[in-house]
Specification:
447 residues; 2 domains; alpha/beta; seven-stranded parallel sheet; Rossmann fold; Glycosyltransferase_28; six-stranded parallel sheet
Amino acid sequence: MPRIAVISPPFQSHAQPLSVLAGALAQEGSDVTFACAPPFARLAEEAGVSFVPLTVTRNANTGVARSTRQGVRESERLEEFIGSTREGAIAALLTQSRHRGEDMLAGPEQVLAEVRDLQERLAPDWFVVDQLSYSVTLALHCLGLPFATFCPGHPTYLPHSPEALFGVPYAWPRAVRPTARELAELRRAALRNDLAFTERFAEVARGHAPQVQAPGRAFALASRRAVVFNYPQFSWLPKHRRPGVRFLHGGQCVSPEEKGPGDVWEGVLSRLKSSAGHVVLIALGTFLSARDDVLALLIRGILAHCPDAAVVVAAGEGAPRLAEFAGPRVHVADVVPQRWLLSRVDAMVHHGGNNSFTECVASATPALILPFSSDQFSIAHDAERARLATCLNPATLTEDDAGAAVRELLDHVPEGLPRWSEALRRRGPRWTAGRLLDAMESPVRSR
């Protein structure tokens, strides 16, 4: 029975799918420990695996970013990012680029010491690490420990060529088209980060593991055995080619044994369905729920254009500011049981986050995607190309556009959704766990 340590950063959107994969590895016969910040111990319990506390970054998000206890500087960066999304795609991406060093590579020496201590205490045979936890990947590289890489976002978050830059979308949806000048500025900022991260990686490696092969390009550092993409295997995606590395497109990481949220939410859904023939879920993710102006616009647009629809809104800390909409056709909450709701609603409006996208496809839920930042533009492009969803630009969105788009989704299911939904359900966490174990335990891949 292999002993496996799954290390996650303290973000709900990352820890959730990683904990599901941890549970699937345990179901396949492994002894699994989930390592994350203390507030995420509940995910290990739900997955049926052991838990050890490990905090690998000062940032955190336990479900609603603004209400998560943060340091002063972390809170300042969060507010700056949210403000930048009001200016459009390039402004948001440039802000994220400026924050990248503090967000993703804080205290690599301390993380290395903590990972070494974890290895000494648990003695796992190998690790699974979130690809965006760069300090942890660097630590495992320096310590010479075997690990698999889990990519929680778009596959191009792992650069596929020398020209590909982390933080620059590989493709854009039709509704979001930056100018050549804007793209050039974004590429320059991304290249500066690429060089800075690579130099910092080399510095840490020289100081703590001079005997180990140099880590090379920082954003491209990943497992030499197996890389898991929590994403569909679209034929047009750029190909990752690394000798000896098995690339696994798991499609989605949704637990098939999803627990119900209880009588309260059953009652909410029953009340809404008694007032309308359709129910639409609006959820912009744990960070972007702070854009209550967009949430209000969406509510007004759907109520006006879809008189037969009710709305459930995940509003985070903005829930009190949207209380005026509460009524027979609108339910506003700080957080919602999204995965449970997806099998019960008729459409969803989301931001193009990887979890929301793959969960919608797996549950065959039509979606309107409003990409704000990060890899959401790449995901929106793929969803549009595969005919899985509609995409609009949140920076120029109007009530009429939003309402009309949702009306169309309620009347006509996107044509690619049934086929891709079936494809994702054929894969998933158990499929991924079995093939990951095969890749990591194969004799030809042993150290």
